[in-house]
């Protein structure tokens, strides 16, 4: 089972009645947490066993994951590391299990209260991010309550938010432990040290817990990004420029919309940073996920038209500029997030769009492109190959996004909910243009193929 590298299009409808988040969300590029482990795995001969485990592991850093899912994933990583006899994989696994998890409203994340299967992971637990309130936890508990003290300890950590790999305290917001240290400080291993000392003093009363807003329930009313028509010229150069200009006009229009704007049933747009569809005369918004993701209109590559999808502003601008259109995202030179919006206000906790640095190998792919662009093409191919194996009955993890039978799918209560793309379109993974990563969108097979080939990747949409 494939756990998607890039859950950047959330299918949870925004709740108009939900209370605002009291704190800014603390997130990270979760794929970075296992990238070095995956590279070590490939070097050790793990081949196609590496990428699926890497993906499964980094998705446990999302706030929606259970308190022991990160440790469970680390156990599986450790199993393979010992099978391949790779010291690097063992070390990177020990660091991964201590990586802080996303915090939706800047509170600490509860600790797993069971022992790991592998003794190499004994005494290891996640750090917290420095911006989190270390006295309040995401389950509503105050410091000292169940789940607020790591397994095996009997008093709060000193300092709070620390972990064996970073005993001096919490980790800077959004940073990866694997980029800060190469020493996991695992108890009982070479070069290891004991976990941060716990204090036996009385626990100081914590301030009242902040109200945590749970992600809204998934709604079948929300639809995935769909293609929109655009006027264009008769020759290739003509329609490409027209597509860029059409995308700019749409983005300029979207910048004027709000959730209360009037609309026609079925109409699709971007409202703030969210994807929106008109249902019952009102826009239902679907948040794209953590910044820098935003909703934008993009030009198609090989036919007249545009698509609406979740991507980064820089990627959208690069795609528009590639058509010859000038003036940035809206044609007026504007390139910022629409006024009055906050990319961090989405209540869906999604993964970053950045793909793992070393995806599972794609057979038949010997593209001649260079740098991250070629890698992006191969990443998209690897994802599309995985999607081809999925069905609506495939097992999945809550919130996981994918393409299933040509439709956009999100995992809800352990099952994929599939929303078919608009007429003639299909769901595919696409390479980003100006940074490492991929995106998922509803587009044509020909458009997807053109975008992948433009990176230098060969072997078609799946690399096969």
TrEMBL record:
Keywords: Signal. The lineage of its organism: Eukaryota, Fungi, Dikarya, Basidiomycota, Agaricomycotina. This is Carbohydrate-binding module family 19 domain-containing protein. Residues 214-233, 332-341 have a biased composition (Low complexity). The keyword Methyltransferase does not apply. Residues 342-371 have a biased composition (Polar residues). Residues 1-18 form the signal peptide. Residues 214-234, 327-371 are annotated as: Disordered. The keyword Transcription does not apply.
